[in-house]
Write a structure and sequence with these properties.
Structural class: mainly alpha
Order of helices and strands: HHHHHHHHEEHHHHHHHHHHHEE
Distance between the termini: 30 Å
Number of helices: 19
Strand order of the largest sheet: 1-2
Largest sheet: 2 strands, antiparallel
Shape: globular
Length: 478
């Protein structure tokens, strides 16, 4: 019998290289591009090798590398053929293009050209990552997860180190410096602490910044990302597909080694989520886990009582851990309500072009009530689209994102591949978290999520098993 020719999904296919390169870029972004794009001009370009390794990078470094990856894809993959094979509905493609195009329209009337110039290239990068993902989904996409796994694990290791060592040591060093009048530091070290606002002056005396001391005492970890809730978003997005892929790929390993590796990954991700203190992250993770259990055919007899028990325990733990937070009046919820109300009001005031990409802080400074906490972003990616780019931009974004997610679930709802299902669970969880966070403006998270969302849309859906061939699984474009 003549052997079948290798397919685009075969291990020998050269299609693995584009996926590996994009995965490397996404893993690198998790480690280095974890700050919001509107802070770009506050993050200097590293000057030495040590700074390149230790410090975050400005987004423009990623925006330099992304076109190079796109060029490799263009040379090594049949872009147009794979996009056509993905059979994306015209309305979905139009939604994504109208959204990006309307950002340019909004830019023409922006309240702050500097902020919009920082934001617009990043939004274009999101769109590019989405279509790169669709193309990869039609071929060999799983090597993409290698780079994401490396970046995520290193980020979670950094979070664990922050909890166990770094934050305690940093707080003690500030207290020791203050108690000695900073005589234990060189003038250059003290100047660096002042620049980073770790040391401030009160009545002409240098003191450790009380806000920083309080933050370090709380111990909410953030890994390589901007703040704890962003770290929770990475766990929601990446852990399901990485854990499932590890379990599948480990069939050749001894059960003890396979189980131990998966347990270690779970401890890193779970510890990062727990120590981040993210309340929305905890609740969304509970929902994701419950959905995953309900889809497990092996637990058909016990999955409903198991799910109910897990939800009860998880919500009880949530209530106990956050008891003091609720007694204080759930201040972060109140603050977010202020942001969201201002975003709605700004949309009403600027219904067509909004205030400009990335500019919410400008109208908010005028609209916020006296004494309300200042913010740079809405903490709701969907409302921010309406506020920044008006009703046309907000609606186009909803059509693109909700349409993509809904179509991906429709194509793979009965999929038997747990990696594909976990891919959808992770992207869904991250997009739900966007109702209360600003992760769309963090390249490390947004580029990764929209790449994976594109992959989920591009993966061929399974044909139902035909009579006479029970359990057979073939794929075809849908």
């Amino acid at each position: 019998m003549t052997p079948a020719p290798p397919t685009s999904d075969s291990p020998s296919s050269r299609g693995a290289l584009p996926a590996l390169l994009l995965g490397f870029l996404l893993g690198l972004s998790i480690l280095k591009l974890g700050n919001p794009v509107i802070l770009e001009d506050q993050i200097g370009l590293p000057a030495t090798l040590a700074e390149w390794v230790q410090r975050p990078w400005p987004t423009r470094v990623g925006l330099f590398l992304l076109p190079l990856v796109i060029a490799v894809h263009g040379v090594m993959t049949p872009w147009l053929g794979r996009l056509a094979a993905a059979r994306l509905p015209g309305w979905l493609v139009a939604g994504s293009l109208v959204w990006l195009g309307w950002q340019v329209v909004s830019f023409t009337g922006t309240m702050d050209p500097r902020l919009s110039r920082l934001t617009l290239p990043h939004l274009a990068g999101i769109s590019a990552c989405f279509f790169l993902g669709v193309v990869l989904g039609r071929g060999q996409w799983r090597p993409l997860l290698i780079g994401i796994a490396v970046g995520a694990v290193l980020c979670w290791l950094q979070a664990v180190n922050q909890h166990t060592v770094e934050f305690r040591a940093a707080r003690q060093a500030l207290l020791n410096g203050e108690s000695t009048g900073w005589t234990n530091l060189t003038s250059n070290d003290l100047a660096e602490l002042r620049r980073n606002r770790l040391v401030i002056q009160t009545n002409g005396v240098d003191i450790a910044n009380p806000a920083i001391l309080e933050k370090l005492a709380k111990g909410r970890v953030h890994g390589s990302l901007v703040y704890p809730n962003a770290l929770a978003g990475l766990v929601l997005l990446a852990f399901p597909v990485l854990a499932t892929s590890l379990w599948q790929a480990g069939h050749s390993l001894r059960p003890l080694l396979r189980g131990g590796t998966l347990a270690l990954l779970t401890l890193l991700a779970g510890g990062s989520l727990f120590w981040s203190g993210s309340r929305s992250g905890w609740l969304i993770a509970l929902g994701t886990a419950a959905t995953a259990v309900l889809r497990l055919p092996r637990l058909q007899r016990v999955r409903i009582p198991l799910t109910i028990a897990g939800l009860i325990l998880g919500i009880a733990a949530f209530g106990v851990r956050n008891r003091d937070y609720f007694q204080r009046g759930a201040t972060s919820v109140t603050a977010r309500w202020d942001y969201w109300s201002a975003a709605v009001e700004n949309t009403w005031n600027h219904p067509w072009r909004g205030s400009g990409p990335g500019t919410f802080m400008r109208p908010y400074a005028q609209l916020k009530r006296p004494g309300a906490e200042m913010t740079r972003l809405v903490h709701n990616d969907y409302l921010q689209q309406f506020s920044d780019s008006g009703i046309p931009g907000g609606l186009a974004y909803l059509v693109w994102v909700a349409g993509s997610l809904g179509l991906a679930w429709k194509r793979h709802f009965r999929c038997s591949d747990p990696v594909v299902v976990s891919l959808l669970l992770g992207t869904s969880a991250w997009l739900i978290q966007g109702l209360s966070e600003f992760s769309l403006y963090v390249p490390a998270l947004a580029w990764t999520c929209f790449t994976l969302l594109g992959v989920a849309l591009g993966i061929p859906s399974e044909k139902p098993s035909t009579p006479g061939t029970p359990g057979s699984q073939t794929t075809a474009s849908s």
